[in-house]
Design brief:
The protein is 76% helix and 0% strand. It has helices spanning 2-19, 29-95, 97-120, 122-134, 138-162, 167-176, 178-196, 198-204, 206-233, 244-261, 274-295, 307-327, 333-346, 356-359, 373-406, 424-442, 444-478, 486-511, 519-551, 557-562, 565-580, 587-608, 617-640, 647-662, 669-679, 685-695, 700-712, 733-750.
Length: 751
């Protein structure tokens, strides 16, 4: 107590110290004192109430204990009286043993008398029961059977009670009632037959199905009663428990399994669409049967059977077993797709288990998958392997067919915009589209996987396509007369590349969830651009093969005296480009620009080959004016062909060279060459030397001065984006001689 008091005082001191930390709080001392007094009074009142409640409880408990003690004494006295009476009655009970035996014997005799009529009429009842079973009067037959079994079971039970070890009497009763077990088995067969045809029976005669269920329910009650009696007496009649209810469910399960297994009407050999037909028949059967169960059969079974859910699970399990069997077979690619589409999509859709009439009775999301995930994965892997093999073969055949078209004597077809094309892109992407549509029915992830596989195969195919285009060009060069429509089909090949690009983008937009470009996309884009650009190059090569003899006439004596080489070049280019207009953008624009560049480069090459050396100012003036005129011709032609912004700059190179030739005052030659170099900084020293050599009036000292001065003031052109002279090689003397001889030989052959 002293310690508690000290703790209370210490706590009070701390509280007072907390209240009086500032001087202005001294004015509130009286207020604090009244508040603490109120708290003290409240605590004392609660304490008194609690103590009073405890005291009342103790008082009540003592009173109840006193009452219990009195009751125990009364019970003890009563038990003593009972014990005394029991000791006095032992002898009396032993004297009644004979009476007890007589009662048992009387009971047995009474049962025998009661069943005597039935015992003598057993053969007659057996015959009636057999007849009722044959007439399908199942309820009446079962009532008769119950009478026979009841008589047999009662007799056996009494015999068991009287002498359980007397097997001979038991055997005698069994022999007398031996037909009863046969009737029971016969009736059971009829019941199972009705249950096996339950889907038909419930539509035609539902009362028959109800009778079967009632009979089974009666037998279940008898089974339970006999099992309970066995627990008490150790006796159970032969054939019990029958467990017809369990057998009923087994029969129904077998019926459902047979129903599902019997849906296959045709085989693969008879019909390629056998699996589609099988799955459709299965879908229809399952849906129709479950609707019948929901609307009709449920009414024929007791509610506690949970009939619809039971049948729902039975059909699900049967279908699952069937599709597992199908999955284990050697299925083809299209059959794998059909099976997986049906399993993963159709099965739980509104067309089958998710039908509106069934959804109210069950939750399809609680169903186990028809096929384990590993089986699905195995099927998908098998499909991908087969699909890869098939699509490689399809692409090969498509390319072979397209190659045959390249040899035709007729032009390829044109699209609605007039661009040449072949059927190859349509065939290829029709294949891809069909397979992607199929893959999309299975699974979103699988669709992405098939799309990636298609693009991978596409990249491999395009490499082969490129090789075939090169071979097509090489074959044509061996005999330029064949194929007759080489140019048109090469244009179609170029256009196909653009069509491939558009089709690939369309497939990705439609079937890919990701918009990010992949390595495969970049590879395909790169290959398509290379095929198209090489095709454009092949066509330009074709043009310049026709222009070769005319290009060799440029900057020659014949050209100076009056040649129509440039006129022929322009007419030939324009004629070719009438066909090239059927090339799709952007390749047509690139090709026109490249054609102009090559024409200008070949023209400048003719200058640099020094095929002519001007002998006097008149020749230089005439040659320069002709070059300017021809530059204007090229400029007019390629503007007409929409060659692009570089037209003036490229043709200006010819004009700038002509200005160097046209200059009459040799002292100003350095300024004119400097102007040329400033416009075209990629020009090299050997180019300038060749120009001065063609001009013919520049002395050795002047050439060295011009070259030296330009070299000292040379400006770096590493950052120059446009160039023309870097593609122009200046031949050596030997090369020039060889070129001249070749040109002369070519001219003679042409004449």
């Amino acid at each position: 107590m002293e310690e508690t008091s000290r703790e209370a005082v210490a706590t009070a001191v701390q509280r007072v110290a907390g209240m009086l930390q500032r001087s202005d709080q001294l004015d509130k001392v009286e207020q604090y004192r009244r508040r603490e007094a109120r708290k003290k009074a409240s605590v004392e009142a609660r304490l008194k109430a609690a103590i009073q409640s405890q005291l009342d409880g103790v008082r009540t408990g003592l009173t109840q204990l006193h009452s219990a003690l009195l009751d125990v004494k009364d019970i003890q006295s009563s038990l003593a009286d009972v014990s005394k009476d029991w000791r006095q009655s032992i002898n009396t009970i032993e004297n009644l043993k004979d009476v007890k035996d007589a009662v048992v014997q009387h009971s047995q005799l009474a049962a025998a008398v009661e069943n005597l009529k039935n015992i003598f009429s057993v053969p007659e009842i057996v015959g009636e029961t057999q007849q009722l079973i044959e007439q399908a009067e199942l309820l009446q037959a079962h009532r008769k059977l119950m009478e026979l079994e009841c008589s047999r079971d009662d007799l056996m039970y009494e015999q068991y009670r009287m002498d359980s070890r007397n097997t001979s009497d038991m055997h005698l009763i069994s022999i007398y009632f031996e037909d009863v077990q046969g009737l029971s088995d016969e009736l059971a067969k009829q019941l199972w037959m009705v249950l096996q045809r339950s889907m038909v029976t419930v539509r035609r005669d539902p009362t028959m199905l109800v009778s079967v269920v009632r009979i089974i329910e009666r037998e279940e009650k008898i089974d339970r009663r006999m099992v309970d009696r066995k627990k008490q007496t150790g006796f159970i009649p032969p054939g019990r428990p029958k467990k017809w209810k369990d057998k009923m469910f087994e029969v129904l399960e077998g019926t459902v399994s047979t129903r599902i297994e019997g849906t296959q009407a045709v085989t693969r050999e008879a019909d390629k669409m056998w699996l589609v037909r099988l799955l459709e028949i299965t879908r229809k059967y399952v849906l129709d049967d479950l609707i019948v169960v929901k609307n009709l059969m449920v009414q024929c079974f007791p509610p506690h059977y949970n009939t619809f859910n039971r049948f729902f699970r039975l059909y699900h399990n049967a279908v699952s077993m069937r599709v597992k069997e199908l999955a284990s077979e050697d299925l083809e690619a299209n059959e794998i797709v059909s099976l997986l589409t049906w399993v993963l999509n159709t099965y739980k859709s509104v067309e089958m288990m998710g039908h509106p009439e069934l959804c109210s009775e069950c939750d399809i999301h609680q169903l186990e998958p028809l096929l384990p995930r590993e089986v699905v994965d195995d099927l998908l892997s098998k499909y991908v392997k087969t699909f890869t093999s098939n699509i490689t073969g399809w692409l090969r055949k498509a390319l072979e067919t397209d190659k045959k078209d390249w040899q035709k004597d007729t032009e390829p077809e044109a699209d609605q915009d007039g661009y040449y094309q072949t059927t190859l892109p349509a065939i290829v992407f029709q294949m891809f589209e069909q397979n992607l549509q199929v893959a999309a029915q299975i699974d979103g992830d699988f669709k992405e996987k098939v799309l990636k596989l298609c693009l991978k195969q596409m990249n491999t195919f395009l490499l082969r396509y490129r090789e075939e285009a090169v071979s097509y060009k090489e074959e044509h060069l061996r005999d330029r007369q064949l194929p007759q429509c080489y140019v048109q089909y090469m244009i179609a090949i170029i256009n196909n590349c653009q069509t491939f690009k558009e089709s690939i983008n369309s497939l990705k937009r439609k079937y890919s969830q990701s918009s990010e470009p992949t390595d495969s996309d970049a590879a395909i884009e790169r290959t398509l651009n290379e095929v198209a650009k090489e095709g454009c190059q092949f066509l330009l090569d074709e043009v310049f093969l026709d222009l070769e003899s005319h290009l060799n006439e440029l900057l020659t004596r014949k050209w100076l005296t009056g040649s129509h080489a440039v006129d022929t070049i322009c007419v030939t280019v324009e004629d070719y480009f009438n066909d090239f207009n059927k090339i799709k953008k952007p390749f047509n624009q690139e090709m026109t620009s490249e054609a102009l560049r090559r024409v200008v480069v070949e023209y400048i090459k003719a200058v640099m080959q020094k095929r002519i050396t001007f002998k006097n100012p008149d020749e230089r003036k005439e040659g320069a004016e002709r070059m300017m005129k021809e530059a204007d011709q090229f400029k007019f032609l390629f503007r007409k062909l929409a060659a692009g912004e570089d037209t003036d700059w490229l043709c200006g190179a010819i004009t700038a060279i002509a200005e160097v030739f046209k200059l009459t005052d040799p002292t100003l030659l350095f300024l004119e060459v400097s102007t040329l170099v400033s416009k075209y900084p990629d020009i090299r020293e050997e180019h300038i030397q060749a120009l001065l050599a063609v001009r013919g009036d520049a002395s050795r000292e002047m050439r060295q001065m011009i070259i030296g001065t330009l070299s000292e003031n040379k400006v770096s052109h590493s950052g120059v984006t446009q160039s023309i002279f870097k593609d122009v090689a200046v031949p050596t003397i030997a090369m020039t001689t060889m070129t001249t001889m070749t040109s002369m030989a070519t001219s003679k052959l042409l004449k």
